[in-house]
Amino acid sequence: MARPNTSAVQPTHSGAWIIQAWLSFALAIGVMAIGIYHLPVDGWQKAFLGMGLLFSIGSTFSLSKTVRDQHEQDRLTARIDEARVTKLLAEVDPVALK
């Protein structure tokens, strides 16, 4: 009996979802930048807030990449472990164990 394929199928995102994600990201950054620009404070305070905004964006991208990479590594490790177990089970001769 053939073993069913147990590898998970990765769902792909629709084009509409990708556009919505990028538009919401751009809108959030744009509105925040406009808000900082129109604050009634000195220029150095606006620059500090703008720098904080840029660092927040950069760290968000780094964190999301790290989480994605860790998830992919865990999936790969699980598949390797499953392949090892399958190989070991295939090598066992049930008649010889008796």
Automatic annotation (TrEMBL):
The record's InterPro entries line, in alphabetical order, gives: YiaA-like, YiaAB
Transmembrane segment boundaries: 21-41
Identify the residues that the record assigns to the YiaAB two helix domain, covering every copy.
Answer: 17-69
UniProt cross-references to Pfam families, sorted A to Z: YiaAB
On whether Phosphoprotein is a keyword of this UniProt record, the answer is: no
Q: Write out the entry's keywords from A to Z.
A: Membrane, Transmembrane, Transmembrane helix
Cellular component GO terms held in the UniProt record: plasma membrane
Q: Does the keyword Membrane apply?
A: yes
Q: What is this protein called?
A: YiaAB two helix domain-containing protein
Q: Which organism is it from?
A: Archangium violaceum Cb vi76
